[in-house]
Amino acid sequence: MIHFDIAEVEGESDHFLNVMGQVGLVFLMFGIGLETRLSELLDIGRTALIVALFSIAVPFLGGFLVYFLFGSDSNTAVMVGTALFASSTTITVNLLSYYQLTDTQEGKTVIGISIVVDILCLILLAVVTNLVSPVHGHAWWMNILIILVFIVAVFAAMAHLRHKAAHRSDLLDRFCSAVPRPGSEWFVLACLVCFGLTACSYLVGLSGIVGAFLAGMFFAEYEAASRIREQFDTLTRFLLPFFFIYVGLRLHFDVMGLNALLMAAVLVVVALATKYVGAYAGCRVCRMEKSQANFTAICTLARGDIAIIVATLAHEIGLFSTNLYAAVIIMAVFTQILVPIIMRRAGIPGQASP
Q1: pTM of the predicted model, to two decimals?
Q2: Tens digits of per-residue pLDDT, 252-271?
């Protein structure tokens, strides 16, 4: 039974706000996947992968080590490191769209880096969650193997179908012609695939949002992606606020002490510094010019939605205390606010600096 009482929001996974918010997260991750063409990702794969690995390793190590100033649990430290290296593809794409840089080489590289980071973040999140709270009764290594096999199988299927475009389009056209309402066929199919892969992800021990992201990547290869993106954006805008309301209600600022605020301040500084250093170093390894490396590194600084998702899941399985949960949320919000300001100060490619 779904609960509606606001007083019962703490610890209630079946609360109305959480249920609606989780559906909003599914649609959000599907939308992020729609921005991710596997073909384009493969074109810039080497550069994106190298920069992503640097922008993951440095923040993760920084977050892992910094947490030991406040605690000593290794699983919690891993989750803090994961929250610190998480990027926000949604924020990145919106920023690049605002400055009309989405179709530039710099923009495509930045989006590719964010996507690779998101994928690795979600995989690590699933691994840590399974270590702490196993979904199946198997050994921890068996659970991780199942997860990796599932992800590899989905990517292999997408790569295979990419080379069978004519046959694939014929099958989808047959399905769409069977849908009674003209104009809704692609949206109906997208919903079925989205919720289907979400359920499969959960069954193998992954967070359901991973399946939604992979479903979005599948549809990104179609011309119809632009049509269904608008419909999913409408649903996401309606449902996602429920998730953030749920997150906000679980923040208890009345019981937060100086320790929590200090923790948040340290995380903000470490998050910005380590992410920039890691991404900039990766760009220079790939022989980017200093100005391009600087712009790319700045674009990766925002955490936003993915870091909040990591913090919420960690709090739900008992890895994050209330203070640490609040500190990570504050870090995610502050980096999201600061990035456009830093970006504008640093100068936008093709535009005059202020």
Answers
A1: 0.76
A2: 666 667 777 888 888 899 99
